[in-house]
User: Fold this.
Amino acid sequence: MAKQSKLVIGCGYLGLRVAKLWLARGDEVCAVTRSLQKAEQFSAQGLRPVLADITDASSLRQLPPAETVLFAVGYDRAAGPSIHDVYVDGLRATLEALTGDLQRFIYVSSTGVYGQTGGEIVDENSPCEPTREGGRACLAAEQLLAQHPVGDRRIVLRLAGLYGPGRVPRIEKIRRGDPVPAPSTGYLNLIHVDDAARIVLAAEDRLTAPQTYCVSDGYPTMRRDYYTEVARLLDAPPPRFVEPSPEMPVARRAASSKRIDNQKMRRELTVELKYPTYREGLAAVLAPPVVRSPGPS
Assistant:
């Protein structure tokens, strides 16, 4: 396969894994960051860093051309700009700055665009009526991308909850036996970050665009079952749950309860998941390290 040019905007928990997969294929990968320290780290990993900030349109004027762009920006509440500033206005500024012969624009969205609360099964054709700020911003960004000239080359990936190494929510509370501030009921939809990265590459290789995919392992689980498995793997007491205060962000997240149908993803992208359920994924993340005995001296 000929070397291709890739541009990663949001080279974090998911984006960096995708970038490394592209590097392993022999592609040239540029990664946007606001941080000089991260730029140095990216360079050491074989990426070509680009110092820019999507909330500052003037800093995007020198974006390098790329055949594929991955927009996988996360939201940092401590950074200052609103989530709409980052997800929508940042996307708009990025689209206006792109140059060259772009073939694919992959936008990482969220299953938060759905607002169902009764455990309904949802897929790509289900109504999007988000109730939380993040879901509304993701949906607005999807709509912006669809209306832009780049939109006919878009792949939208609505990701379920990402988990993996270094990202198992509430792990310290479970380890200590502290109560979890969430209801025990309600469905969680999950995807291991390594599987999500492989799905990004599979989506890029699709011959037809535009497309939208719900990305999950297809194994919705009740919140209590998920945290019970975390506790078991940590050899901790079974989790206890307390209702969160209504003003807490977790209370708004907990109000959502739906079951993501990933059949389109499985049928069209044909990715064999390494972690087909949260049980295999958590076992890989939380398994105790193997201690090898020293060999004979």
In short: The chain has a mean pLDDT of 92. The radius of gyration is 20 Å. The chain has ten helices and 15 strands.
